Amino acid sequence: MSGHSKSSPLPTYFLVFFSLLVGTGLTVFASTLDLGKYNAAVALTIASIKATLVALFFMHIKGASEKLTKLVVIAALFFLVLLLGLTMSDYATRLWS
Amino acid sequence: MSDSSTVAVHGDAHAEAHNPALLHHFAEPQQQRDAASLGMWVFLATEVMFFGGLFCAYLVYRLKYFGDFAAASKSINMPLGATNTAVLICSSLTVVLAVWAAQTARRTLLIGSLAMTMLLGLAFLGIKGIEYKDKFEEHHVPGASFSFDNVEIPGHPGEYANPRHAQMFFSLYFVMTGLHALHMIVGLGIFLWLLVMAWKGRFTPEYNTPVEIGGLYWHFVDIVWIYLFPLLYLIDRHP
């Protein structure tokens, strides 16, 4: 897929690799801070940035020639949001429990 | 096999005629590659749903029993989990190096990267094994001998975690990390096969789809861990 570009992808790969390691260090550090409610938000934000980096650059979503691939990824994320979102909208509005 | 008919249909396409890896129902290598890649992505979409159900169960119980989950999370060996995260990130790097090596006909790098990926995968499982052993010794495995008494809830001195709620955390911990470990074992099998094929010289710049889609699977398993690590190990760590 990205193998068609002439320039070497290696600098990008190593940059992503180091970003992922820094992100791991950052998430461990952030967990030692008392951010109250925001601890989970910070941890999930860092995890999502790391996951996006892996998907875009290591799994070659960026530069994928096939639009169907992107459609499948978006569909998977959409149904995941549906699963989590609808479940939580139920539990979050159960005033009686 | 069908080389002669391929030549007849695509008389001017030399690459196809000389490419034994191109199956007869595909018009060109690019189409074959895209089909294989799309198939793997669809499988990964089903995996997102598979793990998604567990993440959903986790989310519901974590919000319900937050303090108990925080106490139980604190009992897991966090440095081991962080090390495992780094190990998996390194293995993802060796996987992209393997794909690049296959695309650019670097045999030594390809074999080395595949072998290194397997070593890192085994290291991950070994570290996971140490973690599980600790949990067994501490009686934190859900079941008849489970015990989680007199463990304070972080940030609430004098309040103790409910062992039944903590047991729910450990059930999710073992199912989620166990299922992830099972995916790692399957991944090791795939990479062993890739290693054998690479050793036999089956992968060329024209044909390296197995390395690429095997790599997609490995990266996906890495992404699952990227979420499991903060959710299971880092719930409420601050002093």
User: What's the CATH H-level superfamily name of chain B?
Assistant: Cytochrome c oxidase, subunit III, four-helix bundle
Strand fraction of chain A: under 5%
What would you say the CATH architecture of chain B is? Up-down Bundle
Care to count the β-strands of chain A? 0
Residue runs with pLDDT of under 50 for 5 or more positions of chain A: 1-5
State the helicity of chain A in percent bands: over 70%
C-alpha termini separation of chain A? 52 Å
Arithmetic mean pLDDT of chain A: 88
In terms of structural class, how would the helical and strand content of chain A be classed? mainly alpha
The DSSP helix count of chain B reads 8
The strand order across the widest sheet of chain B is 1-2
Number of domains of chain A: 2
- Please give the share of residues in helix of chain B: over 70%
CATH class of chain B: Mainly Alpha
Question: What overall geometry of chain B do the principal axes of the alpha carbons give?
Answer: elongated
Rg value of chain A: 18 Å
Radius of gyration of chain B: 23 Å
- Topology of chain B as a string of helices (H) and strands (E): HHHHHHEEHH
